[in-house]
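Hi F.,

I've been meaning to write this up properly since the lab meeting, where we talked about keeping a consistent format for the predictions we share between groups. The idea is simple: the sequence comes first, exactly as it goes in, then the structure tokens exactly as they come out, then a line or two of notes. No screenshots and no reformatting. I'm using this chain as the first example so we have something concrete to point to.
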Amino acid sequence: MGIHFTKEEFAERKSKVVKELKKQRLDALLMFRQESMYWLTGYDTFGFVFFQCLILTVKGDLVLLTRAPDLRQAQNTSIINDIRIWVDKDQSNPTDELKNILSELSLEKSNLGIEYEAYGLTGRNAMRLNNSLKNLAILHDKSELISIFRAVKSPSEINYIKKSAELADKAMEAAWKYAHPGVNESKILAEMQGAIFNGGGDYPANEFIIGSGKNALLCRYQSEKRNLDPVDQLSIEWAGTYKHYHSAMFRTILIGKANDKQKKMHEACVEALKKCENKLKPGNKAGEVFDAHAKTFDQLGYKNSRMNACGYSLGALFAPNWMDWPMLYTGNPYIIQPGNIFFMHMILMDSDHQLAMNLGETYLVTQSGNERLGKKKLDLVVG
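Output, unedited:
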């Protein structure tokens, strides 16, 4: 069976959540985030694009409502025993079937926590959910209840993330090998992703971002692929992925030669990353990390080129993206803890001169500071 944690670890996670439900006086939690289902039970699917819900009651009951294609998926990858199927048909409304299950579990006139902040719960289905349950129970938005637990990784999770970091390093080696004039971006992507698959890794939760020339200034994937010019710039953001756990990296590789502006931009990225490293330690707030990033870039004259966030948590993520809660932005009060994983990215986009420079690494927060999980150099690379 494709279950990646022990029964004891799953039992410990469930116990923590049940204890929190009692503390918040909730009778059950309705989960729609695939990440929550995977963390709590091992359930591994992309079937969350259709309506599905995992119920956890304060008594410890676990019930999954999903579609027929995911019946065996849940049986083979999770510890869930009670799996209910809603049937596809014209005008079907699975939230009514969910209501019936909740009634069966004696949850009338109860307090229910709902994961509203979920790619697996569309706006239409959220409206259906509210309408179906409005006379059954009191609904509370508890979108971050599981996320708070997931943000602190267990030793077994950390081992998976360290494996993903090794795969990210292998992908970087592939990028360095093929990032030369005349090579098409598709070749570089294929070699990077191949290095991860050949190392036993998985698909990432979103596409690798790659762009050269003017597209090196983009922070999202787009479908144009071009051959690298004799003098060019190539920005790549990618992640090693293992058992869905991610370790991300970001680099701008210069092709042919580096000019003085690019060298200074790289030096600024390294300095900003080091300042962020100094703030990424237990007891500090997530917002303090961003403030170090912003202060460094602003003092160096790059205020108009930097971003308004400098990273985010990583873990076991599913499509459409690998960005997890919490994020590193100004004023974020989240207290950094040992076991947190953060991807910190230093991004400079100079639109006036059409120049990009990026530097990103994944870190494990330790008892006294942090550990950079990628083992490759931070030097500016010219291909």
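Notes:
The CA atoms of residues 95 and 129 lie 5 Å apart.
The chain has a mean pLDDT of 97.

If this format works for you, I'll send the rest the same way.

G.
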